[in-house]
Amino acid sequence: MRLPEFSFHEPLTLDQAFATIKKNNGNARFLAGGTDLVPLMKFGLETPSMIVSLKKIEGLKGIAEDNGYAMIGALTTLREIISSTVISGKLPALSEAAMAVAAPPVWNVATLGGNIRQQTRCVYYNQSRAWRLEKEPCFKAGGNVCHAVPRGKKCFSVYCGDIAPALIALDAAATISGMAGPAEVRLIDLFSNDGLSPFTLEKNTIITGIKIPVPGAASRSGYAKLRVRSAIDYPLVSAAASVALDKDSIITGVKLALSAVGPAPVAIDLNGVLVGVRIDTADFTALKDVLPKKTQIADNLALPGSYRRKMLSVIAKKAIMKAAERAAEKETI
Amino acid sequence: MTRPSKQIISLNVNGDDYELAVRPNRTLLEVLREDLMLTGTKEGCEDGSCGTCTVLLDGAPVRSCMLLAVDVAGRHVVTIEGLASDNELHPVQKAFVEYGAIQCGYCSPGMILTAKALLDTNPNPTEEEIKLAISGNLCRCTGYNKIVSAIKIAGENIAGVSSHE
Predict the structure, then answer these.
(1) Cα A287 from Cα A261, distance rounded (Å)
(2) pTM, entire model
(3) I need a labelling partner for B85 at 20 to 30 A (CA). Which of A25, A131, A148, B131 fits?
């Protein structure tokens, strides 16, 4: 599969990047690691006339802890995130989520910002041009039909990011930069829940960094993922949790976010469930009641939607237990 | 639209410096195989899933099918052709041959380069560390057991040689 032709630009500053796009008036895409964009271009699902590489722009890389926050540049690679002791020690869900992405050679190239901003996926859409020719174009391919949900009136493609749910459970915010200037947006607010256009960000806007409040010792996080193979695969359902315990190992707060359940990651309101009980005696049966009854899970990934729906509470419990066990370890130190 | 012009990039491949004129839409894999005739690097799935196109970029394994050649200008690339020196196979290559870690051979260049990168930083990996390192390289023939053993033995051989130096 050959890539379609495009012009290639390497601006040295964000201002230059925006000016390049404005001047060329083209259908531009920003390039970070390229591990999402390049395959989409090979399949003919993205056809930009211009690629603007962000690699030479200074200030978009690195991990620092400052004033109670972990600040991570959007172009920081997943390998750098996985190697960071600050992240694995204090924000383990992020470390775990990064390790759950694809496989080690991809970690060396894929970036934090690029992983967050990956396109939604569907077994009827992420296929070669020849494969897609056998079927009527679906909503995401510019047509008027959904092959995953018969008589569906919209696109049910799935947001399969591993990292966004971890960042949502960790209360992270994204700093963004666009032609209108910089802004800070809560992670969950980046997502539109629309499979056709999954992000709320205006076109030609760049995520420049992620800001995560560093939790105290009694709060830790975890990530769990359902997939067929233990590497390479995107999540079929995943969950990230952040759990705070008091000195008696009683849960004082739980934050939970899900991914691969529809066109956007979902932050779950646990409505007090699990709070006020000791982690070793916690009854997880109530968890099922607070998980969304009406998800947008359809038969559009590698396993049936009915199975993925059943596994939601299992994966959510796994993420909460990982987080709680880590928080309990910290408490006893 | 006028056709985007070629760009001149410099690339160090297997220790040799090249100056190449490439169009922006060409991947590193295409340039290695078609311009430099380094066909040891294989083309597999073409979308980053299988790992058969793995090369080392500044020492780290990457998928060459997902990288634009213009985006890696100035970097150091090692392909499978760059491992042997003076007709002497690299210890990982030797171990793959000696312990039967090769069947059809299609995954071997990517697998061997991934193993080399692992052993460069961790010459005595555990079985779990080896399995994690090669988890992005698919092999449809061997069942992986002999590959894991060969990498372990290659690590021991490398460590043995360096401890005698």
Answers:
(1) 16
(2) 0.95
(3) B131
Topology annotation, domain B7-82: Ubiquitin-like (UB roll) (3.10.20)
Distance of CA B108 to the CA centre of its chain: 9
Asked if B1 has any chain A CB less than 8 Å from its own CB, the reply is yes
Tell the residue number behind the tokens 């008589």, with chain if given. A151
Place of tokens 């077994």: A123
Q: Does the beta carbon of A123 lie under 8 angstroms from any beta carbon of chain B?
A: no
> Tell me: the pLDDT tens digits for A226-279?
999 999 999 999 999 999 999 888 999 999 999 999 999 999 988 889 999 998
Task: Judge whether B59 is closer than 8 Å to chain A, CB to CB.
Answer: no
- Asked if B71 lies within 8 A of A34 by C-beta distance, the reply is yes
Q: ipTM of this predicted complex?
A: 0.94
Pick the CATH number of B91-164 from 1.10.150.120, 3.40.50.10420, 1.20.120.1630, 1.20.1300.10: 1.10.150.120
Nearest to A34 among B26, B30, B66 (CB): B66
Which among B1, B30, B71 has CB closest to A49? B1
**Is the model's pLDDT at A182 over the cut of 90?**
no
pLDDT of A76 above 90: yes
Domains recognised in chain A with CATH numbers: 1-56 (3.30.43.10), 63-117+158-332 (3.30.465.10)
Chain A residue with Cα closest to B29:
A2
Phi, psi of A69 (to 5 degrees): -125, 145
Q: Give chain A's mean pLDDT.
A: 94
Cβ–Cβ contact B151 with A under 8 A: no
As to burial, measured by CB atoms within 10 angstroms (0-12 exposed, 13-18 middle, 19+ buried), residue A295 is middle
Identify residue B23 by its one-letter amino acid code.
R
